[in-house]
Amino acid sequence: MKLYSVKDYLTGIKRNDKIWISRALSLIEGRRIEQRDLSCQLISSLEKSLEKKSGKIIGVSGTPGVGKSTFIDGLGYHLTEDLKLRVAVLAVDPSSIRSGGSVLGDKTRMQMLASSDLSFIRPVALSGFTGGVHPRVREMSLVLKAAGYDYVFIESVGVGQAEFDLYWMVDFFLLLIGPNEGDAIQGIKRGILEFAHHIIVHKADEISKGEASITASQYQSSLQILRSGDDFIPKVQLLSTLDALKKKKMGEVWAILQDCMKDYWKSSFFQSSLSESLKQQLESKLKLDTIEMIMESSVFEKMREKALKELSFGKKLPGSISYESVKKLFQEKNLG
Ligand SMILES: Nc1nc2c(ncn2[C@@H]2O[C@H](COP(=O)(O)OP(=O)(O)OP(=O)(O)O)[C@@H](O)[C@H]2O)c(=O)[nH]1
Ligand SMILES: [Mg+2]
Fold it and tell me: Any idea which ligand is nearest the CA of 178?
């Protein structure tokens, strides 16, 4: 990958040049030390200019197939076409989880939004990361904010522990659930209820509206109990994106969402979570940077070659070779 000067990236991003935005996003995804150095310089320059920008980062999560891409497509289309706002999307490419590479899966699933000049859609491969999003999507969103996008949507894969990372990276975290996912509250979903700013019971089409309403009231009452001490309690909204698009009602959907976002941003719950967000972001970045910096170093490569040789002698098994190699490396480098 060709590298450019920070000034070149900055100038391109600020004129909303999509080629330069893509180059900057690829730079941030890069793992080589020279890419990381440059990316770090770029992000710190961007951070200074971002204070004046009002763009918001919105996380969208939910079980596979619940309709996240369709929802972002429909809402994004309304924002760009009717309100003339700029909308960017970073979508974890589900095909990359199976194939290991980035195929333009979600770009084709957001065809309405992709047709607008005011949009920018970028599938992001997970590249071996196990969470629901690429750990550097926060930095990628900063590039998009600096490029003038009013809303940056991040679509993540799955529901569970992995989503908590995304929660700390965004300004508003939306959770989509299916019309009959009410029973799940008792089990695995409980955690995520503490990490959602708004819940949409999706695919609440005419035919499944009754079931969806029951699910919604189950979630709403669980939230009332779980979040009773906070001055912000997330709302549960029924939605069929397909119906809303047919009836041209995306404006009403957006109005409800906007009210909820405003309530959240003026709550003291939001104020008190700001410093925790920064702390959580720093914790996960520290782990990521440490692992990547070690793995990209020549020291790691030498250790790896030596360990593989030991394996080929056949006297030891991978478990002991690995632990002993790493321990020896740390002792040699006085990293105890
Ligand atoms: N009945 C109904 N189907 C919908 C609605 N919204 C989306 N779908 C359908 O649900 C299927 C999955 O939609 P996607 O938007 O790809 O769902 P997703 O959550 O992004 O899926 P992954 O990214 O693979 O996890 C598609 O066939 C959509 O047409 C809705 O409001 N009602
Ligand atoms: Mg999707």
Answer: 1
Range of 323's domain? 297-332
229 and 136 housed in the same domain: yes
- This prediction's pTM: 0.91
- Which pLDDT value is given to residue 227? 85
Low-confidence ranges of the chain (pLDDT < 50): 97-106
Closest by CA to 227, choosing from 198, 188, 187, 256, is 198
Cα→Cα distances 137→54, 144, 155, 183, 193, Å: 18, 10, 10, 32, 22
Instruction: List residues, by chain if needed, whose CB lies under 5 Å from ion ligand 2.
Output: 68-69
In a domain, 218, yes or no: yes
- Nearest protein CA to atom 10 of ligand 1, as residue: 67
State whether 61 and 150 are in the same domain. yes
Rg of the chain, C-alpha, whole Å: 22
pLDDT at 181: 80
The answer on 314 and 249 residing in a single domain is no
In a domain, 129, yes or no: yes
Specify if 278 maps to a domain. Answer: no
Please, where are the H alpha helices in 176-265?
Answer: 189-193, 209-226, 241-246, 250-265
> With helix as H, strand as E and coil as C, how does 21-64 read?
HHHHHHHHHCCCHHHHHHHHHHHHHHHHHHCCCCCEEEEEEECC
